[in-house]
Each structure stands twice: as structure tokens, then as C-alpha cells.
């Protein structure tokens, strides 16, 4: 289902008087009806309700809220990154973010079954004075929903970066993922980076030491604030991208050293909040804004 169709269906259902207008879903496996709870709302829309829906159609599994968020991609607890059509989740409960700070969610315990609430942390003012709810995570259910419409609206942001290694001076600048920064597996001792739209901040951790200050400039001749590092071996790096108002949906810094990918400073889905491994000097760096 296209993401805008998914959102339109959610809005249509929310306008109905009660959740029962969406219909009870007949489980063909055991003949039992499923009430329209939080995950039932999402599954029902994907199955084709309201309208000519059918339980279990379109290959959409009958799963609960916690399983549903586990199937999402780009899961994050940073709600400034949320995009229209993403799901929002807390333990045992899930909803649909439709934009403008608004979430549509459902529960049989509510009088009207389905309601709109405001998503805390989304970076948009609660203009409609909705009840505010703090969610734990958000992500996109792209195993069932086509988000390419959102992706096609993205503006390209280029990141430029270079490193200084223990055996070499500053190496040539790299753009995006066209190459990696580093050479001959020599430990990196300084990093500089910039973007051509928005803002980026970055800092490094020194092997056997601590995290140095955040850097927002790009000037390899400015030891104080132009780059990250004190010419000692670096074993970890943190990067965070600030999306400007003229770009939506929100983007993130995606980066890696000698190990796995990291998004911004996230600490979910197996991420450490940084790229690298403590006590192991980094020799390579790759970055993109996605």
C-alpha cells in the first residue's frame, strides 16, 4: 500500500463514529472475531478496511504491536526524525503518525475507539491542542507500506570529510560514500567534516582517554574548533545531523568506521550511539546523509 493511501485510510477511519464502523475482522483460521485494537487498526487498513477488506489479505500477517515495531526499519527514539506514515510505539501499544504532530491510534477501551493525539518530541507545535503522548520508538513498516513517495521528495545533502592519520598528513577530501577516508590502515588522529545543507556536529573519543568537545566547523588549520582530535589515536566517533526547515522528511547521518553502521547518536536496534570500538584505533571512516 502506498504511504499516502495508508494515511488517507487512517484519517477516514478516525472520522467514523466508532471503531465498529471499521468492522470486526473474521479470523479464517479459528473463526473468531478480532476487535479493532491498536495493531488491529493498522492491520485492518492494510487488509483493505474500511471497504472490501479481508482478514489476512495482501500478505499482511496478524501480529501484535510489539512484533509490528520489530518489523519496522529505521527505528529510532529520536522523534525529530519521524515521517508521515511511520508507526509510533510504546510497550504493548502502537499508532500511526499522519503528519503535523498528529498520531491516530485505537483501543477498545476508549469510548470512540479511535482518537487523535499529539506526538511529543516531533518538533512541531501542538496547534490542535490534542492530548499529548510520549512514545518510545518510531519506524516505518516498509515490509507492507511503500514509502518511496516520501523518498522521492528528499533533497540531496552532501557531506564532505577528511582525516589525518598517524603515518600521514591530512588526506584528500571524500564526498559521501564515493570512497572512504583513511589510508594504509594507519590509525586516524583527526577528523574534519561539513555538509552543504543543514548543520552537522561531531566529536571523537581518544584511545585510553575520553570524549573530546563537539565540533561544528571545518577548518584543518584551526586546532581549537576546526576539527575533532588532538593528534592521538581515535577509537570512536559520534556524528549528528540537523535537518534544516526547507528539507522534509528529516535526515540522519549514517556512518561507520571499521565496523557496523551507526545513525546519528541512536542507541536502539543494536547501535552503540557511536561508530568504532573502544581501545581499537579506527583506520577508516565513511559518512552519508540519508
Q: How is this structure best described in words?
A:
The chain is an alpha+beta fold. It has two domains: 3-152, endopeptidase domain like (from Nostoc punctiforme) (endopeptidase fold (from Nostoc punctiforme), Alpha-Beta Complex), CATH 3.90.1720; 159-289, no CATH class. The protein is built from four helices and 18 strands. A seven-stranded mixed beta sheet has the order 3-9-4-5-6-7-8. A three-stranded antiparallel beta sheet has the order 11-10-12, with no helix packed on it. Mean pLDDT is 88; it is low at 18-23.
Give a topology summary.
Blueprint: H1 3-15, E1 25-26, E2 33-34, H2 38-47, H3 65-70, E3 73-76, E4 87-90, E5 93-99, E6 102-106, E7 114-119, E8 132-133, E9 137-140, H4 148-152, E10 159-165, E11 174-175, E12 188-195, E13 199-206, E14 234-242, E15 253-256, E16 262-263, E17 275-276, E18 286-289
Characteristics:
3-stranded antiparallel sheet, 18 strands, endopeptidase fold (from Nostoc punctiforme), 4 helices, 7-stranded mixed sheet, 2 domains, 12% helix, 290 residues
In short:
With 290 residues, this protein is α+β, with helices and mostly antiparallel strands.
User: What CATH architecture of the largest domain do you see?
Assistant: Alpha-Beta Complex
Largest sheet: 7 strands, mixed
Q: Work out the count of structural domains.
A: 2
Radius of gyration based on Cα positions: 23 Å
Proportion of helical residues:
10-25%
Mean pLDDT: 88
Total number of strands: 18
Distance between the termini: 23 Å
- Are there runs of 5+ residues with pLDDT below 50, and where? 18-23
Strand order of the largest sheet: 3-9-4-5-6-7-8
Indicate the overall shape.
Answer: elongated
Please count the helical segments: 4
Task: Write down the secondary-structure element order.
Answer: HEEHHEEEEEEEHEEEEEEEEE
Taken as a percent bin, the fraction of beta residues is 25-35%
Instruction: Identify the CATH class of the largest domain.
Output: Alpha Beta
Amino acid at each position: 500500500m502506498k504511504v499516502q493511501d495508508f494515511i488517507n485510510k487512517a484519517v477516514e477511519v478516525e472520522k467514523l463514529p466508532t471503531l465498529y464502523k471499521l468492522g470486526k475482522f473474521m479470523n479464517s483460521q479459528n473463526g473468531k472475531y478480532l476487535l479493532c485494537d491498536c495493531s488491529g487498526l493498522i492491520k485492518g487498513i492494510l487488509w483493505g478496511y474500511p471497504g472490501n477488506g479481508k482478514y489476512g489479505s495482501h500478505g499482511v500477517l496478524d501480529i501484535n504491536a510489539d512484533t509490528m515495531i520489530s518489523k519496522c526499519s529505521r527505528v529510532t527514539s529520536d522523534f525529530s526524525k519521524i515521517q508521515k506514515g511511520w508507526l509510533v510505539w510504546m510497550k504493548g501499544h502502537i499508532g500511526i503518525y499522519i503528519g503535523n504532530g498528529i498520531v491516530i491510534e485505537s483501543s477498545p477501551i476508549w469510548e470512540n475507539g479511535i482518537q487523535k493525539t499529539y506526538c511529543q518530541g516531533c518538533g512541531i507545535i501542538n496547534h490542535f491542542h490534542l492530548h499529548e503522548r510520549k512514545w518510545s520508538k518510531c519506524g516505518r513498516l516498509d515490509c507492507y507500506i511503500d514509502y518511496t513517495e516520501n523518498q522521492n521528495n528528499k533533497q540531496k545533502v552532501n557531506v564532505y570529510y577528511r582525516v589525518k592519520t598517524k603515518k600521514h598528513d591530512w588526506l584528500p577530501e571524500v564526498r559521501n560514500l564515493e570512497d572512504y577516508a583513511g589510508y594504509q590502515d594507519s590509525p586516524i588522529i583527526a577528523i574534519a567534516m561539513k555538509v552543504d545543507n543543514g548543520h552537522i556536529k561531531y566529536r571523537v573519543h581518544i584511545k585510553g582517554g575520553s570524549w573530546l568537545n563537539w565540533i561544528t566547523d571545518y577548518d584543518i588549520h584551526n586546532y581549537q574548533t576546526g576539527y575533532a582530535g588532538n593528534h592521538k589515536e581515535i577509537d570512536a566517533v559520534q556524528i549528528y545531523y540537523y535537518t534544516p526547515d526547507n528539507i522534509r522528511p528529516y535526515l540522519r547521518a549514517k556512518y561507520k568506521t571499521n565496523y557496523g553502521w551507526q545513525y546519528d547518536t541512536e542507541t536502539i536496534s543494536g547501535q552503540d550511539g557511536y561508530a568504532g570500538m573502544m581501545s581499537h584505533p579506527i583506520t577508516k571512516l565513511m559518512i552519508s546523509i540519508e
